[in-house]
Model the fold of this input.
Amino acid sequence: MTRSESHDELTPFLQEATSASWSVRAASGRHLAAVAEVPEVAEVLHRLLLDDRDTFVTQETAEALLERWDVLGPRMVLTALASADDETGDHLGAAILNVCGQSEEDGERLAVLCSALTSDGDRAVSEEARRILEPLR
Done:
């Protein structure tokens, strides 16, 4: 797949991320989470994680990113958590619990990812990772 072909496939989801409909924005966040490493997509995902119109969008996007089970997903969620207001932060925290708190194995996987993020170059991310790790130890 060429870069222009992949961009063409992403265009509808990028456009839907600005929809007036919360459900369309949430679905867009779920789809875009799969390609979060694309810089243009990462910017849109950050905006959806901090959606100021509906926290369902925030939570769905965060859950989709965490379900990747790689360092990028929680890094994006922790970046948003560091600057979120209280209500949005509650929904980001709920997403972490919903995805990573379902089993002991999930908690261990989250601990591994957060351990890697404690040395992240972004101080806010490393602090959030340490905060999440405390009760897991």
Q: What stands out?
A: Residues 86-100 form the longest helix (15 residues). Confidence is low (pLDDT under 50) at residues 1-5. The CA atoms of residues 96 and 102 lie 10 Å apart. The chain is about 75% helix and 0% strand.
